[in-house]
Hints:
It is globular and about 70 Å long. By secondary structure, the protein is of the alpha+beta class. It has a five-stranded antiparallel β-sheet with strand order 2-3-1-4-5, with helices on both faces. Strand 4 and strand 5 form a beta hairpin. The N and C termini lie far apart (56 Å). The longest helix is centred in the first third of the chain and has 16 residues.
Amino acid sequence: MPTSAARASLALAALLATLAPHAGACGVCVEDRVAAVYDHAVVEGAYRKGHAVAFLAIEGADAGGARSVRAALGAVPGIEAGSVRVSVESASCSVAFDPARASAAAIAAEANRRLARSRTRLSLLRVGRPGSGLAHD
């Protein structure tokens, strides 16, 4: 007859076994992706100007993905010059922009239009605005 400790261990194992199919690796979480391209000086400078910062996921990038993402974002109207940050390892990027000239969604759409020939695509993770911190968009 199993002891109460053995029964408890078996119950715990059964519970974990039922949860295991639902517990998959989520990849790099949003916070890690944002942190990888967060540049405090860029964020503070943008906020002082009343600008915002968009954090985007990079999907399908090949070896030249970082270069093409930088070029595509840098050419979008409303982007602050020199504010593009890219992390190939976390598959994310960030950029400061003037929300009076373009929304974060419009910036992602224009960058994706410029990236259309590559297998690279950008999608919004978060947008930070003065006084709001980093919000989901």
